[in-house]
Design goal:
2 copies of one chain form a homodimer. By secondary structure, chain A is an alpha+beta fold. Helix content of chain A is 34%, strand content 28%. Chain A has 2 domains: 2-203, CV3147-like fold (3-Layer(aba) Sandwich); 222-357, CV3147-like (Beta Barrel), CATH 2.40.390. In chain A, strands 1, 2, 3, 4, 5, 6, 7, 8 and 9 form a 9-stranded mixed beta sheet that branches. A 7-stranded antiparallel beta sheet of chain A has the order 14-13-12-11-10-16-15. In chain A, a hairpin with a 2-residue loop joins strand 13 (280-286) and strand 14. In chain A, helix 1 packs antiparallel against helix 2 (27-41), helix 1 packs across helix 9 and helix 9 (205-221) runs antiparallel to helix 10. Chain A binds chain B through residues 86, 89-90, 156-165, 169, 172-173, 176-177, 179-181, and chain B through 86, 89-90, 156-165, 169, 172-173, 176-177, 179-181.
Chain lengths: 366, 366
């Protein structure tokens, strides 16, 4: 058991933005909200999945929708609590622990707000080990754990409980409701026992995010290379260096979809790298060759500071480097690739681990 | 207190189809389902709103969606009960009485199934005094009574509870969910006390439907004119006689929308009548002049038998007569017209009571 205090937030939010692989919303807003909540309510108790009692009632607290809209709607801590309490009433059982949906972006820091304002402990784990755009893209889905019942709340006072037969149906109906709610909603879902959390969630990812953040900050202070430092903790590789040349982006069906093209510099001069995204970066091609695909991580960072750049922040002319890194091994099973592999996202490409595609030495050390 | 038995069903379903003004789905299916339920569970107790205890928990049981799809999905009595029980659990209170959303079409007979299979009494009233396509188009809306919480269930086992701030929001979110559920859903909503049911619902409309049905059947047996008999009970007028010349129809956003044109015969020879509909008939124009609009009733019936024809059943060549009749007076208030007047449906036309437009003598006797 440890505590999250204001002192941890900077590194945690920074690392979570790296793991967000372009999606998950502006981590700055989440950090501000978490800071405010910690100042108001005091430190948040964080437990590892191993420390959670078997019979605990663990619930994911999150936001859903297009990150561009989420940023406009925040801060809204009341709605997070409304979603949690609505789910609790529907379950008819007291919720004992809060968890993160994803360790990327906003959804890694907002549960701190929920935990702080309810006084509940936060479990150091998440359901993706990164960020993904849809609910069923969660490791618990592979273990037969339902996302339903799921509560949604908006800033107008509307609440909805979805109780669907499977996680694809939960995603589908929750997505429609989120669009009705103004393209963003506060949600509580995936209620599970402590035993289920231990067996199905990806453990210690808040700690991982904090480690990544600290490595970046440490490298900056040591005048070292923060991008290389981040890649090292991720067990990944810096695969491209260049200048953003084109960005196409549109918000449709509740998602931010688009693509960007980077023109190479230095050793990549004359080449280009194209990254396509749906909230998160999905596939990177260098000179037309696939370099990395989901579920592996593709993160665009500022060339100098190592600060991760979300797909909303991509702008013409930015000097960036692109990190590719292996995902958690649970996603590399057939069941995992069925949920989040490149074919699910519409790419006619077999998944090949990024270590092989990008010619890394050694591969994952996570 | 009275009972609905199989002996009442024929007339009730027939009259409800007249009051359905083209919408509400095929009454034949609803009649079959109600018959089966009455055979299985015995007669249903029917009470007038005056007989309902003040503190009763009254709930509307209904189906929502495009009638064409509803017909394909029926029968599905389990889903009706699932919706009711889901709402009951969310309310945390035992439901004591079942009510009808609308007296038109399927939704006048399906609550008989719910009442029969739960053993709960059915209140002789409805929330529209006719049929309308949207949830907030209900007299309780004018009395500040919320449609939420509202439960939806589908044939796949999915359930949703919508708890929205007002009835427009309930409609909007429930409509999206209904589309996800396959364009049709079983619903339970508008929980209210007996006192609220008495003050806000339109009373004795099941009896009215039965009276209309009996008048039509009686006229047929007496070799009298069943169309005139129906119009008489409605306090309305037969405004057109002719042959269906064109029908345009499309299912969009969960509604059956379209228009039909009737070419006049006999005294209307050389004229035509155009009726536009969205599930229900909304506006009738004769030779370009508005003859009747919502909330007044526009019903197309078979020229000889007086059998009402839903918008799905309209076919080229049918010999029809069109009845226009006054709506319940509650709809003629400004609040009522804001909810269901012609402008709400997008027509740039002021509401004028059908008695004046169609030149009726006397007007409403309902």
């Amino acid at each position: 058991m440890r505590h999250i205090t204001e002192a941890h937030l900077e590194a945690l939010a920074l690392g979570a933005a790296v793991l967000g692989t372009g999606g998950g919303g502006d981590p700055y807003i989440g950090k501000l909200m978490a800071r405010h909540a910690l100042q108001t309510h005091g430190p948040v108790e964080v437990v590892t999945p191993d420390e959670v009692p078997e019979g605990a009632v663990c619930v994911i607290s999150a936001v859903m929708g297009a990150p561009t809209v989420l940023v406009e709607k925040l801060p809204g801590t009341d709605e997070q609590l409304t979603a949690l309490r609505t789910l609790e009433a529907y379950l008819g059982r007291e919720i004992t622990h809060v968890m993160c949906a994803e360790v990327g972006g906003l959804n890694s820091t907002l549960p701190i707000v929920t935990a702080a304002s309810t006084g509940l402990p936060l479990v150091d784990c998440d359901a993706m080990g990164r960020a993904f755009p849809e609910i069923q893209m969660s490791t618990p889905t592979m273990y037969g754990i339902r996302a339903s019942p799921m509560a949604l709340a908006d800033d107008k006072g509307n609440r909805v409980v979805v109780d669907a037969v499977d996680n694809h149906w939960t995603e589908r109906m929750a997505r429609s409701i989120t669009i009705d709610m103004g393209a963003a909603a506060f949600i509580a879902l995936f209620s599970m026992t402590g035993a289920q959390a231990k067996s199905s969630m990806i453990p210690n990812t808040l700690q991982l995010a904090e480690d990544i953040g600290r490595a970046i900050v440490g490298a900056r202070e040591a005048k070292d290379d923060p991008v290389a430092a981040a890649a090292r903790i991720l067990g990944g590789l810096v695969v491209f260096s260049g200048k953003v040349a084109d960005v196409e982006r549109r918000t449709m069906e509740g998602f931010a979809r688009g693509r960007m093209r980077v023109e190479g510099v230095d050793e990549h001069a004359g080449e280009d790298l194209v990254v396509e995204f749906q909230n998160e970066n999905l596939i990177a091609r260098r000179a037309g060759e696939v370099l990395a695909t989901v579920p592996d991580l593709i993160t665009v960072v500022d060339d100098l500071s190592g600060a991760p750049i979300t797909t909303e922040e991509l702008r013409y002319g930015l000097r960036v480097r692109v990190i590719a890194a292996p995902c958690h091994e649970r996603w590399r099973s057939q069941a995992g690739l069925d949920l989040v592999g490149p074919r699910y996202f519409g790419y006619d490409v077999d998944y090949v681990p990024v270590e092989r595609l990008a010619g890394m030495q050694g591969g994952a050390d996570r």
